[in-house]
Amino acid sequence: MSHKILVLPGDGIGPEIIAEAVKVLDVFRAEGSLNAEFEYAHLGGAGYDAAGHPYPEATRILAKQCNAILLGAVGGPQYDTLPRELRPEKGLLSIRTDLGLFANLRPAILYDELADASTLKNEVVARLDLMIVRELNHGIYFGQPRGIRVLENGERQGYNSATYTESQIERIARVGFETAMQRNKRLCSVDKANVLEVSELWREIVCKVGEEFPEVALSHMYVDNAAMQLVRAPKQFDVIVTSNMFGDILSDEAAMLTGSIGMLPSASLNASAVGMYEPSHGSAPDIAGQGIANPLATILSAAMLLRYSLQLPQLTDRVEAAVKIVLKQGLRTGDIFVAGREKVGTAQMGDAVVAALRMM
Ligand code: NAD
Q1: pLDDT at 336
Q2: Cβ < 6 A, ligand 1 pocket
Q3: For a tag on the chain, would you pick the N or C end, based on fewer CB atoms within 10 A?
Q4: Confidence band (pLDDT; 50, 70, 90) for 261?
């Protein structure tokens, strides 16, 4: 069976970094280990430019038919004055909602070769490898009622609702446990159950789902402590599962442990394992078109696509090994450059990963 991969280059550096990730997937297509077809479409500012909408109908139709989506990034200053509904970010939110992408997986890995890039001491972060599983479709960012109302005394009050149903918790908990099963079998559920009823239910349901995964060591941590532990001793974590807002904050904190945004991939999955894979960074308009962006986060996102949507973990392992090889060879794009290494551009970095893959 041939897999359908929808490629959305997007804006800014998106097309440049996507081209390198596609080169990597093409190695597998050429050797016959990946049977896949690529379709290309527009999202974000590119969608607005081509079809007057950040999530054009043509893209929506293709998105509904594919097994996985590889996205560059969206956004740019030229779109900042558009009405909110037409801005690139709206395209991103729309495709996530449209496909029900409720589980966001964000690894934070510190490669030995990049240990100097972290702001934390080497012994605290060396060999860091953790995964944050964040619920992406519910919780306080979406809960009703919400708004700004006028109280009886005339003062205005802003309010939001942090809501989770049992089934919403159950399905993200299951992703957390399944992810832990593929790694070191340790899952830490982060909540605020000492204060919030929504977290009380969260904890109860996570424990219930845990009964189906006796091999996974489950622990619980309050979010304030988790924020502290992430910088104090991040290597204690294997997989963290948490709600939308807590995950939003903790995943950015974890990303910074590795010191370099150009290295971090992400996956957003729905209930049928259709996923959208994209680097954690944005469209970097300041360096777009110069051929200097780091393509490794996008290449590693393609590696996640192979594991989570196409069930080809052996190919994921090869891409990750190839990335380690090029870093070991001393190749560095500007964002991860340190003196004594070889500075390379986007395409050169992609070519080096391809060459490393072919040697395996
Ligand atoms: P950004 O992540 O695009 O850039 C932040 C800094 O990191 C910049 O200096 C940039 O040059 C650098 N950088 C980012 N990726 C890099 C890479 N691969 N290689 C080398 N350097 C890299 O964040 P920003 O500047 O706040 O946002 C720019 C645009 O991207 C905005 O329009 C924003 O809305 C959008 N954005 C999109 C996404 C997404 O598509 N998922 C995420 C975040 C921001």
Answers
A1: 87
A2: 13, 17, 73-76, 89, 92, 261-262, 278, 281-287, 293-294, 297, 333, 335
A3: N
A4: confident
Rounded to whole angstroms, the Cα distance separating 111 from 213 reads: 30
Residue-wise pLDDT for 197-220, tens only, equals 999 999 999 999 999 999 999 999
Alpha carbons 202 and 243: distance in angstroms, whole number: 9
Q: What separation in Å is there between the alpha carbon of 281 and the centre of ligand 1?
A: 5
224 catalytic? Reply is yes
Q: Which of 251, 261, 337 to mutate to test the pocket of ligand 1 (most atoms within 8 A of CB)?
A: 261
Cβ burial of 225 (10 Å; 0-12, 13-18, 19+) is exposed
Q: State the burial class of residue 178 (Cβ atoms within 10 Å of its Cβ: 0-12, 13-18, 19+).
A: middle
| Phi (first) and psi of residue 307, to 5 degrees | -75, -50
Catalytic residue selected from 26, 98, 252, 317: 252
Q: Is there a contact between 308 and 271 (Cβ–Cβ < 8 Å)?
A: no
1-102+270-360: what fold? Isopropylmalate Dehydrogenase (3.40.718)
User: Measured in angstroms, how far is the CA atom of residue 301 from the centroid of ligand 1?
Assistant: 16
Confidence of residue 44 (pLDDT cuts 50, 70, 90): very high
- Under a CB-based contact definition with an 8 Å cutoff, are residues 107 and 133 in contact? no
Does 80 qualify as catalytic in the annotation? no
CATH 3.40.718.10 fits 106-261, yes or no: yes
